[in-house]
Amino acid sequence: MNGKKRWLPWRAARWERMLLTAVATVLSGEVFFNFGIDNFRISGAVVIFPVLLLTLVQDGRMPLTGILTGVCLLLVRSAVNVVGGGESWMQATLLNYPAAVFYPCYDALLCLLIRDRYQAPLSQLWWTFWLCDGVSNAVNFSLANGGIPDAQLLVWLTLIALARALLAALILWGMKRYRRLLLAEEHERRYQRLFLMTANLKNELYFLKKDAENIEGIMSRAYRLYEELGERDCPEELRQLALSIARDVHEVKKDNLSIVRGIEGEVAGTATDRDEKMWMSDLFTILQDTMRHILGESKADIDLLCRCGNDFATGEHYRLMSILKNLVINAAEAIQSGRGTGAIWVDERVEGGALILIVQDNGPGIPPRAMRNLFQVGYSTKFDPKTGNISRGIGLPAVEFQVRELGGSIQVDSGTEQDRSAGGARFQVTIPMTMLEKGDT
Length: 441
Prior knowledge:
5-stranded mixed beta sheet, two-stranded antiparallel ribbon, elongated
């Protein structure tokens, strides 16, 4: 029973494809012109037929599709002759059977010459199509006219077969090329998602490691409390409670470290030859695509203008992406918290042996009282009154941490209430090029 459940749907899908090939071929064959010989047509059907055989029909061992196409053609053309010309079914069948023989003959030759249609190169397919078309044309003509065509006609039939074979091969080449372009585009999208996910994970690792340090401090203080309670002859229940807290915190620490090691292992496992370095221009392209996705409906209200002044390859692209993404998101949130529309400028250049990244917006700016706490974890001025959500306040601290790890510095300026000519907030990151040229060639 299970075998039938798997076999019947496959069988039905296969015959559906065969029937679709037959119907499409027969219908396209009704658009034709005569070659000057009775019952001999030239149409696009012979171009469509091999294309559909190689794209729709999976089985290349038996000429079943050719037989089905020939039967459909015989029925359709005979019906047209009977209804429109007043001929009998016998007369119509005798008139159209030579054309119907063309497709079984074509498919049979193709099955004999090419066993694996999907692995065959175009250099083999085009001359195979040519031979199948030429031989099937000669058979069609011989049956229709009761004799073998002369030399001059054979030359014309061969040239017609060559033209149709080349056109069919060209269509197949175009389809394969199109599929490759789609596949390359999908691979690029997947790579961008993997790249951004890795950059985000590296960003979050900083906070997990920072939490591990805090947990270590909590555990130490809990254990010191346990010892001090013992020295002061406090009740045993209090001492055991302090010890229990220290043990629980220790377990939390172990779990946290396991998560950190797991993420570090996964992040390290994503590194490939392609990931060793990235050009700054490609990094900016990914940044723009990512921000369009993040902004969503707001992308029409916020313009992101990027300029890559000096293009170079770097092995620190994950950190640079994390820095730029957090700064741009911070600028976008500032604009949204103000008037809701604005622009963000991202500028990159190399001066004096250092990379300079500038992210500037024309939002409301940063209040003076907020400048002191700007890089503290958890501090944020971003509040959504509609949802009540407040920002986590980890973006800018992560930027400062990443910049310092690269041996760089970050400078923040903000326009005052009296002078807005400089825009809202301006972040300038300076990183030594010696830290960014690792692995470059």
